[in-house]
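Module 6 notes. Inverse folding takes a fixed backbone as the condition and produces residue identities as the prediction. Think of it as a translation problem where the source language is geometry and the target language is the twenty amino acids. Below is one complete input and output pair. Work through it position by position during the lab.
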């Protein structure tokens, strides 16, 4: 909700409070999303990689990871991650993001 209101600092505070009570993959993915949106791409990538290490087909983690790789302009990796996400769950938003990538 904080991200939708364009308040990433409050989102980060809320997620860190949640993680202090117990680590969940959802909170880790959302923290990665906040980090990615605010330009902290290395931390975001570390978070999603840790989720994908135990749950390689986590749709949200794949989508965030693809977004990170897009921001880093590694379009071939981003495309593969978007395709993996689509294999898990169809998403018009993911299809649109994939279509916007430069040709490989």
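Target side of the pair, the amino acids:
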């Amino acid at each position: 909700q904080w991200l939708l209101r364009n308040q990433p600092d409050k989102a980060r505070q809320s997620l860190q409070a949640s993680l202090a009570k117990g680590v969940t993959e959802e909170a880790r993915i959302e923290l990665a999303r906040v980090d990615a949106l605010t330009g902290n791409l290395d931390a975001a990538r570390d978070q999603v990689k840790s989720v994908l290490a135990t749950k390689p087909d986590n749709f949200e983690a794949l989508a965030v990871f693809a977004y990170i790789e897009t921001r880093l302009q590694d379009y071939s990796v981003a495309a593969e991650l978007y395709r993996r996400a689509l294999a898990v769950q169809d998403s018009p938003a993911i299809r649109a993001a994939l279509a916007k990538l430069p040709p490989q």
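Reference fact for the lab report: Residues 83 and 98 are 8 Å apart (CA to CA).
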